[in-house]
């Protein structure tokens, strides 16, 4: 691999891993369903940047872009459905704290 | 490369602000800011189509959806804010140290990566790639959109008394 590209890949990879850690921490340490969704969103952003970076380094940007477009569609559907579940939980239990959502009847 | 590093640092700061801020609305705004910076980075990595999608959908549509969801829920009252801030700072004060520590560690170990990436797979245009070579992906996207729409309809359907 071209040394410049290798160095660029290394720099980007460090930041991608750090963003991923922030998303994972948000996912694990939050007790709010909407904040948990924000954590998932941050994880997806790290994955998006990694896919685009890999496409750029390998010279396959078109393939990476088509995969990212698919990823964004999946992401938005996931967010809408998961947000709908959070609102449904709030409507029925008056809370979006997952520790208090112990009633799964209905 | 300097501009990329500045953008990457801004991305990390925006993510940290998104995760650590107490108010949910500010957190959503931080997420939108993260998406804007990410779309600039994606554009610089020679992927304009993905950058446009990221900017319009992830920086535009998803924050609107989150703000709508936040407006339906009960906000923190001004009296409860100091307690929430204290509880949150106890849970999240490790994060900047973890980020700095892991960042320093990785920057030492990944200075000269000992791995190689394969060469170009296909140099086709993104439109050819999306509409001709990966046509099944589009079918999958349609099915996922339909599944999501049905999911929301099922979640919010009115029950008959």
Structure description:
- The complex is a heterodimer of chains A (106) and B (161).
- Chain A has 106 residues and is an all-alpha fold.
- Helices cover 81% and strands 0% of the residues of chain A.
- Chain A has helices at 3-29, 33-58, 61-93.
- The termini of chain A are far apart.
- Chain B is mostly helical and 161 residues long.
- Chain B has two domains: 1-76 and 88-97; 125-161, no CATH class.
- Chain B is 76% helix and 0% strand.
- In chain B, helix 1 (2-20) packs antiparallel against helix 2, helix 2 runs antiparallel to helix 3 and helix 6 (126-133) packs across helix 7.
- At the A-B interface, helix 1, helix 2 and helix 3 of A face helix 1, helix 2, helix 3, helix 5 and helix 6 of B.
Helix percentage of chain A: over 70%
Return Rg of chain A in Å. Answer: 18 Å
The ordered H/E elements of chain B are: HHHHHHH
Helix content of chain B: over 70%
Low-confidence stretches of chain B: none
The CATH topology assignment of chain A is Helix Hairpins
Tell me the series of helices and strands of chain A, N- to C-terminal: HHH
* Structural class category of chain A: mainly alpha
Number of helices of chain A: 3
Q: Largest sheet of chain A, described in full?
A: none
Mean of the pLDDT scores of chain A? Answer: 86
Per DSSP E runs of 2 or more residues, the count of β-strands of chain A stands at 0
From the spread of the alpha carbons, the general shape of chain A counts as elongated
Task: Name the chain pair whose interface involves the most residues.
Answer: A-B, 68 and 79 residues
Number of domains of chain A: 1
Termini Cα gap of chain A: 57 Å
Beta-strand portion of chain B reads under 5%
Beta content of chain A comes to under 5%
| CATH architecture identity of chain A | Orthogonal Bundle
Task: Classify the secondary structure makeup of chain B into a structural class.
Answer: mainly alpha
């Amino acid at each position: 691999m071209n040394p410049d590209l290798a160095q660029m890949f290394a720099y980007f990879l460090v930041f991608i891993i750090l963003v991923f850690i922030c998303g994972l921490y948000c996912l694990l340490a939050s007790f709010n369903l909407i904040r948990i969704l924000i954590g998932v969103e941050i994880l997806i952003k790290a994955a998006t940047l990694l896919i685009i970076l890999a496409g750029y380094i390998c010279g396959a940007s078109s393939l990476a872009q088509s995969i990212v477009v698919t990823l964004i569609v999946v992401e938005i559907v996931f967010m809408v459905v998961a947000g709908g579940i959070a609102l449904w939980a709030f409507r029925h239990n008056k809370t979006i704290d997952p520790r208090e959502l112990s009633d799964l009847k209905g | 490369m300097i501009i990329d590093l500045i953008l990457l640092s801004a991305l990390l700061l925006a993510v940290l602000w998104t995760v650590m801020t107490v108010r949910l609305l500010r957190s959503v705004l931080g997420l939108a800011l993260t998406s804007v910076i990410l779309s600039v980075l994606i554009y610089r990595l020679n992927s304009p189509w993905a950058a446009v999608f990221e900017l319009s959908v992830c920086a535009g549509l998803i924050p609107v959806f989150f703000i709508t969801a936040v407006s339906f829920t009960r906000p923190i009252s001004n009296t409860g804010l100091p307690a929430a801030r204290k509880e949150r700072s106890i849970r999240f004060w490790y994060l900047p140290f973890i980020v700095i520590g892991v960042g320093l560690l990785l920057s030492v170990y990944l200075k000269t990566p000992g791995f190689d990436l394969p060469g170009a797979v296909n140099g086709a245009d993104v439109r050819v790639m999306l509409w001709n070579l990966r046509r099944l992906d589009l079918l999958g996207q349609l099915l996922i959109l339909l599944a999501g729409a049905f999911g929301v309809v099922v979640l919010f359907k009115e029950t008959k008394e």
